[in-house]
């Protein structure tokens, strides 16, 4: 059962990392709204890297942002958080593959493997938090501009890229929590049973040896 949960957590984390990569490169983090507009000539959609304009025929043209420093601060922060999220996800996958009990990578020391798997779960949780902060921060700015009656620029709505990012963060957080619960309990149980395992493997355990020594004295020897 525990190995099954580890495998499920690994697959969830893998899909979380893939969807985070898809969300980062998705074109529609925000889409221009039709609300309040009578005549719509083109749709504008943006992500962290580029802005695109689509005409009524469905043909669109994109251009990358010319300067990083000219971008708003929250866009730069979201870029950094999403890239960090993908890197953390890769580390989490590597550590989880090494620390899984059904994996032969890293030997058969299950105490060390359990700790490595726990570290992989920590990476997945950090990945989920980074993605969640990035997409939520970006969505907050979209909604803030949308409901601001004095905002002079083009108003946008939440795009598909943000929903993909929220799904990615949820998968990463679930997988990280599963690994922490399962592998953390495994490590505690294995540490408690380690002396008894050593005794079965031939390593003498002091209290067991003393308790197994025969008693050559009768009751009258203590009188």
TrEMBL record:
One cellular component term from this protein's GO annotations in UniProt: plasma membrane
Keywords tagged on the record: Cell junction, Cell membrane, Membrane, Signal, Tight junction, Transmembrane, Transmembrane helix
Subcellular location(s) of the protein: Cell junction, Tight junction; Cell membrane
Signal peptide from the UniProt entry: 1-20
Gene3D superfamilies recorded: 1.20.140.150
InterPro entries linked: Claudin (IPR006187), Claudin_CS (IPR017974), PMP22/EMP/MP20/Claudin (IPR004031)
UniProt membrane topology term: Multi-pass membrane protein
An example Gene Ontology molecular-function term: structural molecule activity
Residues annotated as transmembrane: 73-95, 116-140, 163-183
Entry similarity comment: Belongs to the claudin family.
Known role: Claudins function as major constituents of the tight junction complexes that regulate the permeability of epithelia.
Protein name as annotated: Claudin
């Amino acid at each position: 059962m525990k190995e099954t949960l580890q495998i499920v957590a690994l697959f969830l984390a893998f899909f979380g990392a893939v969807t985070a990569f898809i969300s980062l490169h998705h074109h529609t983090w925000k889409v221009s709204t039709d609300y309040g507009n009578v005549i719509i000539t083109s749709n504008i959609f943006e992500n962290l890297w580029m802005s695109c304009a689509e005409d009524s025929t469905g043909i669109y043209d994109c251009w990358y942002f010319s300067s990083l420093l000219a971008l708003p601060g929250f866009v730069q922060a979201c870029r950094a958080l999403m890239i960090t999220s993908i890197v953390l996800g890769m580390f989490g996958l590597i550590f989880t593959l090494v620390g899984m009990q059904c994996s032969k990578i890293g030997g058969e020391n299950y105490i060390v493997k359990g700790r490595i798997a726990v570290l992989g779960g920590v990476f997945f949780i950090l990945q989920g938090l980074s993605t969640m902060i990035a997409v939520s921060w970006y969505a907050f700015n979209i909604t803030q501009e949308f409901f601001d009656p004095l905002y002079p620029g083009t108003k946008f709505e939440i795009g598909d890229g943000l929903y993909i990012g929220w799904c990615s963060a949820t998968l990463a957080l679930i997988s990280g929590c599963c690994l922490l619960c399962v592998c953390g309990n495994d490590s505690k149980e294995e540490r408690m049973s380690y002396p008894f395992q050593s005794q079965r493997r031939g390593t003498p355990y002091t209290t067991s040896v003393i308790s197994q020594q025969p008693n050559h004295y009768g009751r009258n020897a203590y009188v």
